[in-house]
Amino acid sequence: MSLWLVRHAQPLIEPGVCYGALDVAADETATTQAAQALAQVLPHGARVSSSPLQRCERLTLVLCGLRPDLTYKVDARLVEMNFGCWEGQRWDSLAADELARWTADFWHHRFGGVESVADVMQRVAAAWDDAAAGPGPQVWVTHAGVIRAVELLAQGVRQLSDAAQWPVQAPGFGQWRVLALT
Fold first, then answer.
1. At CB < 8 A and 24+ separation, what contacts does 33-39 make?
2. Residue 10 to residues 48, 55, 133, 144, 168, Cα–Cα distance (Å)
3. Which of 2, 86, 146, 151 is close enough to 142 for a disulfide, judged by CB 3.0 to 4.6 Å?
4. Separation CA 14–CA 143 (nearest Å)
5. Chain segment 131-143, per-residue pLDDT in tens
6. What is the pLDDT of residues 24-53, one digit of tens each?
7. Cβ(16)–Cβ(153) under 8 Å?
8. What is the per-residue pLDDT for 181?
9. How far apart are CA 94 and CA 45, in angstroms?
10. Residue 45 contacts by C-beta under 8 Å, 6 or more apart in sequence?
């Protein structure tokens, strides 16, 4: 069984801005192009789950409009990490000591005061476990952080001891990866 991990299209926000849980729109043309490309390759009848943030939900709606065989639901567990007070701030303007605190206690520190990596991994792991128990191919329209968390889960990693363990690579905007659900 497969899990398609789809990243939303380019968000309409200045590059370098922390926007994790901010509900910003994505470029409409890029969203349509991503949906068209994805519609051509997804297996028939795949179940689609989407982050509730508009940049993901819009891609999901366009995709399902192109492929009426797809079923769709919103899953709040697929939302990007909430960076709290740092949302909407430029990454290069954040205090170095704040970033150092997060890196030093990457698993538990609530960077921005809301969510820790442990919190994100816990909710994504719950969605992963549900997906693994479900039938047929599945598609998640989500964010880079969630995709990185899933890559760890696919390797059997459910807890990190060091920030260096967090995957660096993620699909580009409007791109996807396919993993086997185990």
1. 33/9, 33/174, 34/6, 34/8, 34/9, 34/59, 34/173, 34/174, 34/175, 35/59, 35/62, 35/63, 35/65, 35/66, 36/66, 37/174, 38/4, 38/6, 38/63, 38/139, 38/176, 39/63, 39/66, 39/67
2. 20, 8, 32, 12, 18
3. 146
4. 17
5. 999 888 999 999 9
6. 999 999 999 999 999 999 999 999 999 999
7. no
8. 80
9. 44
10. 69, 70, 71, 136, 137
Q: Hunting for tokens 């993620």 — which residue is that?
A: 170
